[in-house]
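Late entry, written up from scratch paper. The run itself happened at the end of the previous shift, but nothing got recorded in the book at the time, so transcribing now.
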Amino acid sequence: MLLPLLILPWAWGALAASPPVPPGSLTLRLLQTIIFHNTSSTDMAGTALLGDLETHSLDCRPCKVRFLQPWAQQGLTPKEWQDLEELIYRYLSDFIRLMKELVEEEGEGYPFVTQFSIGCELHPNGTSRRFCDAGMNGEDFVSFDTDSGKWVTQRGDKLTLKALESLNYNRVVAVMLQFLLRTTCVNQLKSFVQHGNESLARQEKPVAVVFARVPPPAGTPAPVLLVCRVTGFYPRPVRVAWLQDGEEVAPGGRLNSSGILPNADLTYQLRSSLAVEPGAGHSYACRVQHSSLGGQSLLIPWEQSRPWGPGLAVGITLGVLAVAAVAAVLRWSRRRGYQDVRHRESSL
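Output as recorded:
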């Protein structure tokens, strides 16, 4: 069946296109990717996340669950983890076999990629949202409706419809999946929140710098692009705004942002830019608001009155000295050569 990793005590989360998580909510998710290179070769990768914190990974040669946090083994006994690994292996094998059969029947080609996302989201008011989605080659494939207990799809191709028929034929699996999403996932989410609270509560302060990306030559009317680079912050939510003469710049064409991007050290970064007219006499500053700052803001002004920083000034000074030294050597060499010529002429 199309259920490679359904029977998991920790559930899977939505893909990037899923609805945003409401403030104060937390998601338990597990993402699974399977690459079908040809009829005899597949690669698989799986990862589980609590919020944006990676807690487990799945190594499928053989199928072993790796614990990426010191508390990630909580909630299940060693025997239960072992049973889970065996169950994962069985469902992955069934899924791969089914996909190969469907692809062969419909004349589909290799390679292709399948992605799965199953999980639950717990809201501050105690309510929850469940989701179970599958994608193929980066597009929606099928989804499980937890209320009706049926698989649904927006696609009408033969491959998808046959997969949907096979999924909905097995009512036992559908009932089990409903229970896992409604009950097991939420219970495991609460358990992991309890054991991993210290990791989830981690706070890393942002570091920010403001600079002009491409300063125009003197006298050029072209706008200056100011850039505010903010990095090293955790958790993810952050607010970055530009101030002109102390007033926040309203959203518009002058503003641009990279969006929040991950760093390799499990923190985040963001770049925000503002186009300004040179010589207009305004003052500009970048304001950063983040939970790690304890209710305060980080304010970084653009020092347009000092376009050359100390490093640049030192570099220019050293460059001038180097040019002067070379010129002195050349003058000395020419003078010495001239004196040598005069000496040879006088000797003759």
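The chain is about 30% helix and 35% strand.
(Scratch paper discarded after transcription.)
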